[in-house]
Amino acid sequence: MGSGSGFADIDWSLPWFAQFSARGIRWQRAAQDSYAALLSEMNADAQASQQTTGRGQRLGFIAQDDLPAGAAYEAHIASTGCVPTRHNLHDFFNASVWFAFPRVKAALNARQSAAIDELGVGPTRGGARDALTVFDENALLFACADPELSRALRAFDWMTLFIANRAAWGERCEVRCFGHALLEKLIAPFKACTGHAWIVDVPGEYFAWPQASRDAWLDKAVSGELSCAQELTTRMFAPLPVLGIPGWWPANQATSFYDDPAVFRAGRLRSR
Length: 272
Fold this sequence. Notes:
The protein has eleven helices and six strands. By secondary structure, it is an alpha/beta fold. It has two domains: 12-121, no CATH class; 133-258, no CATH class. The strands form two sheets. A four-stranded mixed beta sheet has the order 4-3-5-6. The longest helix is centred in the middle third of the chain and has 18 residues, at 102-119. It is globular and about 50 Å long. The chain starts with 14 loop residues before the first helix and ends in a 31-residue tail after the last strand. The mean pLDDT is 94.
């Protein structure tokens, strides 16, 4: 995707984008104007928010070309607070997530930069950095107050999760898109588009809270999990086909939508 392209294709009415729309619509206009205008809008919001990155540095955004030669991306963010940002959808959504879930992004940055300090950049990331990268790029936050639904997700039990308990969505479970590469893919949604779900156990009263309160609770809880986890591996995620989420795609109102083993595949039980 070329520099500056694709911004007009964001449909803020779609559920995976709607959570970012309040700020995103303004950023979208700036991005369509110029690269400099987009960075200016992002930095104005960063200055107002006083958010920090993985080592307590104030969040800001710089042009990709301002990343010093040889500097590791995550280490630079941790040490300076400055997020190298290109004029494209991938980095647009990355910046959006920094504001939607600032504690989670900071926790990811802290662990990534610590791993780089310990092991260097190297030709391979290693298990922990692979898991952190998957989270950053492709995660969904699956907030759930019903253990049956969490078990169904881990067990690839799509009938239980999507059909038998369809009414539970929005009352006992819900999803937030987190991964910025996943958000970029969802510009042109396709049936097989699958996120890596990070299951978050939430209290029953969570679903009575306004969205801003739920997001703040998720931000604190998930950042705590990421910061405290002794071991991180990609097996801690459960695959979740995004267009199967009830209410997120009109075609899934028909139960036959799920009769596609290439997308809604069988699998063995996974547990975290």
